[in-house]
Amino acid sequence: MPATGHYQCLLFFSLLLASLHLAAAMIPALAPAPAADANATAHRILARFGFPQGLLPGNVVSHTLSHDEQFEVELSEPCYTWFSDLAYFEKTIRGRIAFGRITSLSGIQVRKYFIWVDIKRVVASKDGGSLVFTAGFLTERHPASEFQDVHRCEKRAEISSSGPGGGRAGVAVA
Ligand SMILES: *[C@@H]1O[C@H](CO)[C@@H](O)[C@H](O)[C@H]1NC(C)=O
Q1: Which top-rank group of organisms is this from (predicted)?
Q2: Where are the domains of the chain?
Q3: 107 C-alpha vs ligand 1 centroid, how far in Å?
Q4: Domain 30-167 carries which CATH code?
Q5: Does residue 79 surpass a pLDDT of 90?
Q6: At a CB cut-off of 8 Å and minimum separation 6, what does 90 contact?
Q7: Which of 22, 100, 115, 142 has a C-alpha 20 to 30 A away from that of 28?
Q8: Which of 91, 140, 86, 89 minimizes the C-alpha distance to 115?
Q9: Is 75 strand, coil or helix?
C-alpha cells in the first residue's frame, strides 16, 4: 500500500473509533437512571442547564435526556407544591431542554387567577437571576431564587387565598 493510502486508512480507522466512542458516550444519556440516583441527578441536570434545581419537586423516580434535547421526567405520583403560585406536576413531565431554555414543556400547571394554566416554556435570564415562564398568552418573570430549594410534592394541595382581611382560606384539592 502506498504511503498516502496507508495514511488514509489510518485516518479512516481513527474516525471510525472516534464515532464509536461518541456513540458509546451517548448511551448512558439515553438509558433511564436507576431510581436511587434519579432524583438527585435530575436536579443536577437542571443546574447543568442553568436552571435552579427546585424547578422539579423532590420525588423524581426516573428521567431520560436524549442527545436531541428531549427529556422526560417521571415522578413517584402526580402532586402539588407551592411556589409563589400553586403548581401541579403530572406524573410525567416532558419537554426540550437547552442551556437556559426549556420548551415544548408538558406536565406542569400553575394556578393563576383561579384557573390552571399549562407552563409551556421557561427561559432563564443571561445572568441566571430570573426565569420567564410562558403559559399561552401569559408571561411572568420570577426571581430564580424562588426555585432554589427542592420542594416536597404533596398529594393534596391547600389552596390559600388572601381574603380582604389577608387571611388564608384553606380549600383542599385532591
Ligand atoms: C431529591 O433530590 C433533591 C436535590 O438533590 C433533595 O433535596 C431531595 O430531598 C431529594 N428527595 C428525596 C426523596 O430523596
Answers
A1: Eukaryota
A2: 30-167
A3: 20
A4: 2.30.240
A5: yes
A6: 75, 78, 106, 107, 108, 109
A7: 100
A8: 86
A9: strand
For 100, other C-beta atoms within 10 Å of its C-beta total 15
Distance from Cα 75 to the centre of ligand 1, integer Å: 12
Q: How confident is the model at residue 165 (pLDDT cuts 50, 70, 90)?
A: very low
In the chain, the amino acid numbered 4 is: T
Among 37, 41, 43, name the best residue to mutate to test ligand 1's pocket (greatest count of ligand atoms within 8 A of Cβ): 43
The β-bridge partners of 23 are none
Query: CA-to-CA distance for 172 and 119, rounded, in angstroms?
Result: 23
Q: What is the pTM of this model?
A: 0.73
Number of H helices, E strands in the chain: 2, 11
